[in-house]
């Protein structure tokens, strides 16, 4: 099995499609008693056995509690050492020994047979990557490790810091942070542990800065692009977190380990399968029993527990807006009031990235009921958006007032003036500068939909809209929800004659 195979070199000399030769085994120090020499050889051959034996060094006084998930992580990391896996994504809940396994034990273990390997580690905070670097060095400098493999290499005194240390076989372990400088540095193993801070993952700006840093800096730090191994280990926090980003681009092998089994068999490139068979079975019941998982779920809430515990960044039953609240009908009353509200793309197209979606919702209201009549949605250039808005207004007719969400600052006013003077000349048009978050602005629509007062007119856009609301506000896109919320907001306001729409 994979637990008994030795890692192979990460340096050049073999084409990436060929498996390098296995290292020649050398016996542990002969001064050790026979039993300890046998144990040392078992640890050298198996990462999972190495973790079990070395645990006491980094967690003294805390008994080692194994789990099949630790074995699964170990086996996949061994495959990375053999370069059978070149890009590995591990999604797993917090506090499950993921950092110890990936950032502490793994490099110590691989250096036993390949001390020349160079490692780069990063986390969302420097103190976290430094913490794991210190623990890794603690193992290497321990009597337990030196008695067994001290003849393989030595740490050099002129480069032996908390964040970076080297050995006399040219191996290096460097610790940095997301956004930290890696200029001039490179590695044979690029490891990213918890790239997102949980309470910042909902911020588009912060989350996207992590993706940009990975794409532009960390992912390019491989010493040899033919042989470099990249590993990301994290909990899911958003559909478009770094996990979603790399999976969307492709080329990554994923090991997904949800806290509670949901009935879907998970297979990996190694042929590994989640051993659980019944929905609700726990990942690590020896550490997180049913009562503690229930409390965790209650504390996190349905949105966050779906991502952080289940590695699915939206609840199975839906997000804030539930798709079952929206009945689909074949028609709508033509005497109803109507508005078209546009949520404009926030960013222009960039090389290598698709433009954001622009969405325009046509909504009608009569006697306290609302119909989503039509949804226009497209990824277009600014000129393409202008053409879409104009063509849609011509189709809707002059009786439909058009609202467009206006961006802040002078650029937003300039754009609104252009739409008023040129794009929508001859149509009833008003810019709208909403306040509050998109989630807050969706509250009135959510309440009306839950009461059964929002209906969808049957159309080809229905599925995309329902898919988006199912994961809102933690989905990759929210343009349709924002457009619908904006249209609802104007139709739900008091109208002439003193009538107020009743939800």
Describe how the helices and strands are arranged.
Blueprint: H1 34-45, H2 47-58, H3 68-81, E1 87-91, H4 98-113, E2 118-123, H5 126-140, H6 143-149, E3 155-160, E4 164-167, E5 172-177, E6 189-193, H7 204-216, E7 229-234, H8 242-249, E8 253-256, H9 290-308, E9 327-329, E10 337-343, E11 358-366, E12 369-378, H10 382-396, E13 401-405, H11 409-423, E14 429-432, H12 438-441, H13 443-450, E15 454-457, H14 462-471, H15 479-491
Parallel strand pairs: 1-7, 1-8, 2-5, 2-6, 6-7, 9-15, 10-13, 12-15, 13-14
Antiparallel strand pairs: 3-4, 4-5, 10-11, 11-12
Helix pairs in contact: 1-2, 2-4, 3-4, 4-5
3D architecture notes:
The protein is of the alpha/beta class and 503 residues long. It is built from 15 helices and 15 strands. The protein has helices at 34-45, 47-58, 68-81, 98-113, 126-140, 143-149, 204-216, 242-249, 290-308, 382-396, 409-423, 438-441, 443-450, 462-471, 479-491; strands spanning 87-91, 118-123, 155-160, 164-167, 172-177, 189-193, 229-234, 253-256, 327-329, 337-343, 358-366, 369-378, 401-405, 429-432, 454-457. Helix 3 packs across helix 4 (98-113). It is elongated and about 95 Å long. The protein starts with 33 loop residues before the first helix and ends in a 12-residue tail after the last helix. The relative contact order is 0.09.
From the structure above, extract its key features.
single chain; about 500 residues; alpha/beta; eight-stranded mixed beta sheet; seven-stranded mixed beta sheet; about 35% helix; disordered N terminus; disordered C terminus
